[in-house]
Amino acid sequence: MPVKRGRIGVVRATRDAYNRGQVHFTGRTSLPELPEVETVVRDLRPLLIGRRIASVRASRLSLRLPWSRRWNPALVDRRVERVSRRGKWIVISLEDEHYLVVHLGMTGQLTVVPQQSLLAPHTHLRFNLAGKESQLRFRDVRRFGSASMFAGRAALEEFFQRSALGPEPFDLDRTYWRNKVVQTNRCLKAVLLDQRVVAGVGNIYADEALFAARLAPIQLGRQTAAGEADRLRTAVVTVLRRAIDQRGSSIRDFVGGSGLKGRYQDEFRVYGRMGMPCVRCRAIIERIRLAGRSTHFCPRCQAPGQEPPVAGRGAGV
Ligand SMILES: [Zn+2]
């Protein structure tokens, strides 16, 4: 596999490997996760809903999934009705059941800007919006992101079925989650990262949720008590909600749909803090490789048999 040197870390990846979920990351790399995608969706809603697409321009470079020029006329003159999220996919619903589905990949940015604003390098798609002279732009330096169009609800549903996405973290049924956790030989970190079990949780928020729940990332699912599984479910939701409130984390190229950055990176308790003292107990935060990803944890707070966090003290500390 080719080795590409990134700005922050080293990535050994091909787009095919990324498609198969076999990308291996070293160093400080991360992808937009659920809170970042939700931030883009919330930013785009007031800027897109009710607007009509006037024209479409695509660059010649291919994204992870190729953009078909046949889709351009199908999008033109259609009005945006909804902007929503499914896992890490952004779904822009247009009139007559036409859907524009975007994945940010590693470095994707989906923003609405004035038509006259300078065109940044690596802008692959431009959708002129009728009326206010603004433009929806998809920019992606590394081109692991994608944009596709689907005509008809059935085609959209089929696409998500092929992706085998699990339930949203906010909709996790307690029994479903307990079963998924306690019936597996995999470690808790791997369970959290499995998009078929729960959609949208990636490396950063998996580490932060495990710290908040005071569970070791290396702990095996089958060694986990039902109460611990419940604690983890609560921690995932709390951490994700707090991150959404802070507009997600900007540690690579992430910006929201309005171009503003996120602030949650300032609240990380363990992620990216190896060698630094734990905010709760002052032990030194460690980093190991687990489930193919770098994993950050406090060896004291997250040692086996820890007391559950005290209610009302917040998820982080
Ligand atoms: Zn600690």
Q: Which structural traits does this protein have?
A:
8 helices; four-stranded antiparallel sheet; binds zinc ion; alpha+beta; Helicase, Ruva Protein, domain 3; N-terminal domain of MutM-like DNA repair proteins; about 325 residues; about 20% strand; disordered N terminus; disordered C terminus; 13 strands
Outline the low-pLDDT stretches. Answer: 1-29, 312-317
By DSSP, the count of extended strands is: 13
Quote the distance from N terminus to C terminus. 41 Å
Largest sheet: 4 strands, antiparallel
CATH topology of the largest domain: Helicase, Ruva Protein, domain 3
Q: In DSSP terms, counting alpha (H) and pi (I) runs of 4 or more, how many helices?
A: 8
Tell me what portion of residues adopts beta-strand conformation. Answer: 15-25%
Description:
With 317 residues, the protein is an alpha+beta fold. Helix content is 26%, strand content 22%. Strand 6 (89-94) and strand 7 (98-103) form a beta hairpin. Helix 2 packs across helix 8 (226-245). The termini are far apart. Mean pLDDT is 86; it is low at 1-29 and 312-317. The structure holds zinc ion. Residues 278, 280-281, 283, 298, 300-301 line the site of zinc ion (ZN). Zinc ion binds at residues 278, 280-281, 283, 298, 300-301.
Q: What's a quick, concise take on this entry?
A:
The chain has 317 residues and is of the alpha+beta class.
